[in-house]
TrEMBL record:
Name of this chain's protein: Protein FAR1-RELATED SEQUENCE
InterPro entries: FHY3/FAR1, Znf_PMZ, Znf_SWIM
Organism: Panicum virgatum (Blackwell switchgrass)
Main localization of the protein described in the UniProt heading: nucleus
Subcellular location: Nucleus
Domain of life: Eukaryota
Family: Belongs to the FHY3/FAR1 family.
Record's GO cellular component terms: nucleus
PANTHER family (alphabetical): PROTEIN FAR1-RELATED SEQUENCE, PROTEIN FAR1-RELATED SEQUENCE 10-RELATED
Length: 267
């Protein structure tokens, strides 16, 4: 896909959600709506791909391989190209890796009716029609040559990862892994905070040794700076806490006597 085609495709998608002269804040809101709808559509396609079992319609091994690796939508496009490949015939062979194809119904004297397909070993096949370079899927001409050679699978160099089932599963697993890391970090911090409040609200006196150990552990984990990690906590403790340590609690509530001001009689 060229840069102009990519830009026009993006504009076409955005025009369904927002007008061209919309302000920026409305664009952001509509873009979030567009992203949410896109995620829902991808989830629906993934569900259909995993749940619906589609029957093979040609019986060729290469079709079974495409059904295994491609998503539902791309498999339908692949089948259409495979079906259309039956309209072509191999006219001649040039060397060991180049084939000349033509439409069986076309005029044989027309030079434009001939299409050249070149094999690059067993890893890749190229065609001068440029369909694979445009959308990342084999064309009917290349499939005709592969079926003629009794190839069992699509060449690895012609499998675009973005159209495969593994691409969706891998992206979901990476997203789940990143969200799990964030969740674990929040959970650890919450547990640490709960423990600090529990120790601070105890009636028992906190020993100086336990205080040093806790401060060293917290400072060492929160700051990689060795100067801060090796701070002189005994001097800080002696200068700050001269009396007995008291648990952290809310100040006592002052209750005033008499009638509340808001219920007093009006003069």
């Amino acid at each position: 896909m060229t840069s102009t085609q990519r830009s026009e495709s993006a504009n076409h998608m955005l025009k369904r959600y927002i007008q061209r002269a919309a302000p920026m804040h409305l664009f952001v809101a509509k873009f979030n709506e567009f992203q949410s709808d896109s995620n829902d559509q991808e989830g629906k396609e993934g569900f259909v791909t995993n749940q619906v079992n589609r029957k093979m319609r040609t019986g060729l091994p290469i079709e079974d391989h495409a059904h295994t690796i491609y998503t539902r939508a791309m498999y339908e496009k692949f089948y259409n190209e495979l079906f259309e490949s039956g309209k072509y015939t191999i006219k001649s062979k040039i060397g060991q890796d180049e084939y000349v194809l033509t439409d069986a119904r076309a005029d044989m004297e027309d030079a434009a009716a001939y299409i050249h397909v070149r094999l690059q070993g067993t890893d890749r096949v190229t065609c001068e029609c440029g369909l694979f370079e445009h959308m990342g899927m084999l064309c009917r001409h290349a499939l005709k040559v592969l079926v003629h050679l009794d190839r069992q699978e699509i060449p690895p160099g012609n499998i675009l990862h973005r159209w495969t089932k593994d691409c969706v599963e891998r992206s979901l697993s990476e997203e789940s892994k990143s969200s799990l890391i964030v969740h674990n970090d929040k959970l650890r911090k919450k547990m640490l905070l709960d423990k600090v409040f529990e120790i601070a609200n105890r009636e028992a006196t906190l020993s100086e040794t336990a205080f040093h150990q806790a401060m060293d552990a917290i400072t060492g984990s929160s700051s990689p700076d060795p100067v801060l990690a090796n701070s002189d906590y005994p001097n800080i403790l002696t200068a700050t806490f001269t009396g007995q340590l008291q648990p952290t609690a809310c100040p006592p509530r002052t209750i005033l006597g008499g009638r509340p001001p808001n219920t007093g009689l009006k003069s």
